[in-house]
Design brief:
Blueprint (H helix, E strand, L loop, with lengths): L6 H29 L3 H14 L4 H13 L3 H14 L4 H13 L3 H14 L4 H25 L3 H14 L4 H17 L3 H14 L4 H13 L6
Length: 227
Amino acid sequence: LKSNPSNNEEKEAQTQLTKSDELQRLHSQALSAYQQEDYEAAISLLDEILAVCVWDAELRELRAECYIKEGEPSKAISDLKAAAKLKNDNTEAFYKISRIYYQLGDHELSLSEVRECLKLDQDHKQCFSLYKQVKKLNKQIESAEELIREGRYEDAINKYDSVTKTEPEVPIYATRAKERICHCLSKNQQAPEAIKVCTEVLQLEPTNVNALKDRAEAYLLEDLYEE
């Protein structure tokens, strides 16, 4: 604007300057909304800014934080994945992605993401601590599933009992473990026990198809055809 461009360039520069001022204003409002814990408003404002500033890692991390606070962790993952690519050595993003997957019960993806963090910094304390936890849980689950494939149901039940002890804080792992124990009991023809455990799973997740099928098998063993 200051270098006496042609009218056409001046118009374009003026438009960009106006847009820039508007985005700075929206940015201030978004930060203010975040500080006031109005995460829904912050997300809405950040949506507008990110439609233009697509490659801004900090803004994506901020929107991810808002999604987490709003109880929408799945939406946070895509922003954090973008931030991990946009910013070099972004261990924090990989750590957060791994934690979200872990909380959602996806231990395999959690393990994959925390490994990415440790590739960037093998001494990262939080990532290393999470890695040890996820690796241990992952190994137990894989081992239990192998025992099920071999038809060693009693051993598999014991292994899934260990899973609930390894991760007592995240309820989804206890539910998944119970669901597989219900399957093992049903397959092992321990019908009364299977019915009890499957029912516990179905009280938590009434539409759990696996538990419904396994309980049905147990009912058949007991000649409870109506049930």
